[in-house]
Amino acid sequence: MTLQETIAAVRGADESARELARHRWDSLAKPLGSLGVLEEMVTRIAALTGSADVALRDRVLLVLCADNGVVARGVSQSDASVTAAVAAALGADSSTVNYMARGAGCRVLPVDLGVLDFPGAPGVLSRRIRNGAADITRGPAMTRAECVRAIETGIALAEEQTARGVSILLTGEMGIGNTTTSCAVACALLNGSPQALAGRGAGLSDAGFARKVRAIRQALRVNDPDPADPVDVLQKVGGLDIAGLCGVCLGGALCRVPVLLDGLIATVAALCAVRLCPPARDALLASHVSAEPAAQMILDELGLSGPISAGLRLGEGGGAVAALPLLDMALRVYGSGHTFGALGIDAYTPQ
């Protein structure tokens, strides 16, 4: 489905299902709201799907991989070759998040949207838009048509996985330099300062951090992205991975399948999706508060809270995968039938 068709087709949450889920939580033999954010996550899923009977069976982590020309400005500790190496490892089921995902019963599907000079690798799905994004300090990351194509690729990935029976989509990414591009997008959308919102990514020195801040400032000055037009922002200072993840968020909302977000890059993409289509917010779940400085600001803008605050900054979807077992445990309680009535005791009431 095209971007505009998707935006027109997305519908908001089912409030009756939300109330049924809240009532079920309140009937369970525990203090009201005592599972905190986990209760809210289950309730959001019920409202999205239109059913208080929540089950997360088949689950998949979509890791969108692409390179960013801004690495030429010295904004990262690694060069672009690492993107290809990690993408291949993801396909071979041997990267960090693959080991995490096994424990969470989650498939990992890496997708090449534009890894620089990548010949392909077993297990990596090819959906190439272009051979890496351009250097945003010198001009736009991509054309508007390429950006729309990347978003629509994300929508299609969500539709394809939903058609396979997936009941929750997890978002991940791999692309050296993408904390720089995601911070540039966040600055444009939130009218924020690069000095305040930028972080040290995979581990920058003071000099490297200064280069990163300068690069973001220059990118915003050179490209002058329009904050009222998220596609313009993504096209000019974003990246193929961020645009694709924006599409995954929109596709999840379209298919009424929850999207469990990872950290900074994924939440920036989600913010773009919500700016394009406000009802898409109902499909989103936060997993954690990233160690990146902009992370909490973006979650606040989205109205989301993540159950994990552990200083995570792996990327690859690691935070989203880490949250799955917590969500599974909450669902075991939610579906347990362990009610006040079954125990013959008085229910808790709001005081």
Sheet with most strands: strand arrangement: 3-2-1-4-5-6
How many helices? The count is 15
Query: Distance between the terminal alpha carbons, to the nearest Å?
Result: 48 Å
User: Describe the biggest sheet?
Assistant: 6 strands, parallel
Helix content: 40-55%
Average pLDDT level: 95
Low-confidence stretches: none
The backbone outline, from C-alpha atoms, is globular
Order of helices and strands: HHHEHHEEHEHHHHHEHEHHH
Helix/strand class: alpha/beta
Q: What would you report as the Rg, rounded to the nearest angstrom?
A: 20 Å
Fraction of residues in β-strands: 5-15%
Total beta strand runs: 6
Q: Would you mind describing this structure in some detail?
A:
The protein is an alpha/beta fold and 351 residues long. Helices cover 50% and strands 9% of the residues. The chain contains 15 helices and 6 strands. Strands 3-2-1-4-5-6 form a 6-stranded parallel sheet, with helices on both faces. α12 (264-276) links the parallel β5 (259-261) and β6 (284-286). α6 (144-163) crosses α10. It is globular and about 70 Å long. The chain starts with a helix and ends in an 8-residue tail after the last helix. The mean pLDDT is 95.
Q: What is this entry, summarized?
A:
Strands 3-2-1-4-5-6 form a six-stranded parallel β-sheet, sandwiched between helices. The radius of gyration is 20 Å and the shape is globular. α1 packs parallel to α11.
